Amino acid sequence: MTPQDFVSQLGAEVVDKNYATYRSLLLNTSASKALDPYWQRVLVLFGELTDEQREVLLELTRHVTIDAVANVLGVIDGTLELADADDAFHLTYAGQELGGELQGTFLELAEQAGP
Hints:
Blueprint: H1 3-28, H2 37-47, H3 51-77, E1 92-93, E2 96-97, H4 102-113
Antiparallel strand pairs: 1-2
């Protein structure tokens, strides 16, 4: 697996699937059916939005996921540091080093994929 393959699959598994899950939950779940108080509040708020506002919020969920994944990849690449980490992180697959440009590659792919 190449670094490009890794970030591509990571985007598909984390970003795309989470976006689809949140989109489905928000568009298809009634607040009265939600058991979790947090989700009840979210669904009530979502239900009060216009269609355009809903799309903006859904787009935000996608961008937040992209940013979170990119930040983790930045830690692996060494462009973002953890406060108490004294050594570099390394990501390998089948003995091959994958880190180094993961964050940038991931963000390029996310930008190409669009909103």
